[in-house]
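Figure caption, in words: inputs first, then the predicted bound structure.
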Amino acid sequence: MKNFFYIATWMAVAFVLILNVGNPGYILAEETYELLPDAGKKCPIGEDYYFIYSFDKKPQLGTIILKVELFDKAGQRVTDLKIIGDSGMPSMKGHHDSGDVEFKLNKKGDYLLPVNIVMPGDWEVKLKFLKGEAIIYRGSIRFDI
Ligand SMILES: [Cu+2]
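Bound structure (copper (II) ion present):
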């Protein structure tokens, strides 16, 4: 009888594992960044928000400013989310990564983040949008210099 419970427990564990393997979104959701469209395009965050990003100049060597304008579903500018950016080169992981840096709000309600482009190549800025402490959206901006 002991053996039966032992086997039944392990079968239950295996069953749960198999279910999750069939649902990769469940496992990957934590770290999946959606590839964002070009600057100036609407980027939806679920049903309640969207944002538009742009750079102060064409991405080039030096410091460029990434601007995010956040809107609610009615198209009104809002600033009730926190945005965190992490820039780096996907092909040189760890070499130039900025780590998580919070965007700063200006008086117009623009979210601003300086991005230091230190060499030519492929660059990515990973964005996290937080409502309170919860991350509600992850998106990735990619470009080449
Ligand atoms: Cu590099």
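Helices lie at 2-21, 24-28.
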